[in-house]
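Q: Hi! First time asking for a complex rather than a single chain. Here are the components, and I think there are two in total. Is that enough to go on?
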Amino acid sequence: MCQDCGCNLGGNVRIEGESLLHSHPNHSQDNHSHADHSHDHHSHHADRPHVHPKRTISLETGILAKNDRLAERNRGYFLAKNLTVFNLLSSPGSGKTSLLERTITDLNDRVQVGVIVGDLETDNDAERLRKTGAPAVQILTGTLCHLEADMILDAAQKIDLDRLNLLVIENVGNLVCPAAYDLGETVRIALLSVTEGEDKPLKYPTLFKSVDLAIITKIDLAEAVGFDRAKAIENLQRMAPQAKILEVSARTGAGMQAWYDYLLQLLPTRVSLSLA
Amino acid sequence: MHELSIMEETLNLAIVSAESQSAQRIHHLHLRIGLLSGVVPEALRFAFDVVIKGTIAEGATLGIEEVPILCHCTFCDHSFEPKDHYLYECPSCHQFSHTLLQGRELQLTSMEVS
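A: Yes, that's all I need. Here is the structure of the assembled complex.
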């Protein structure tokens, strides 16, 4: 897949500063070179113009089939590791990192969390999360506006997954592109902060329709910014009837218990394979 | 704006397929794009013109078939095409559906080669 999403500034996906080399066919190299050999059928009939007839090839190929396949591989891998995986999606600044910081700290004695953070630049978020004691790997996407399944497996190798029971992927802050890319997560979660307005779910239908849980964040600021809570919930229920809705403030702790209850019931229970 | 990366992936799929069938040129690509795929056809067309340059698809045309949304109401047990693109209210019972039968497609369906 391409690293030039959205603009042509170039750039390169890096995990913890190391370059991630994709199998990224460069189109100029796709051109088949004829320098070292010749095609027989072209050298025949020099006296006649040679025309290849046009023909139609039927394909029915999913354009994101490769990512979907890699996401399923991830899902199987995480299942084998007995890991629950969250894919956290939101606009920039809606409080993903703050929610995680508080969650990791509060559940310190019950849940072993690891985090993969995607950002265009800087490892500030991973650095903040490491202060909680949790292992955190930063993926720097350069100019790419979303994370893809292959990046997740590469980043996950930098963490000792056997010590974890929850892996959280903090996606690039963006409510459009990440919606299309399955990463192999167990549940997909959207954050919507009260400062963004109650009509946000109506503006980003593809994303909100794809999530299992929607969390309204920064509810301690709701009054100050004139957030219409009833309208926001109604919009979410109409746009994303499949999604459970929670309301939290990572700053005051309001609503956090319901979030922890949700999270804890999703953690894998060790299955004994003993036949005895 | 992930249309450029989606179009690059599409072209890669097309080129691999064309070469596997010994085709020298790609003249036309046909895509099926669901209305809820999160992809904007105009942006795909723009990206297409950019990515085909210098490839065996240079000069090719792009056909995009938009796939309408089809929902299933679990309360009434029937399928319906919602009036609104994004709010899937069942015309009979007025419940909001989240069971999508079609509309998320992102497919390369066929191409013309020689």
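A: The mean pLDDT of chain B is 94. Let me know if you'd like any chain examined more closely.
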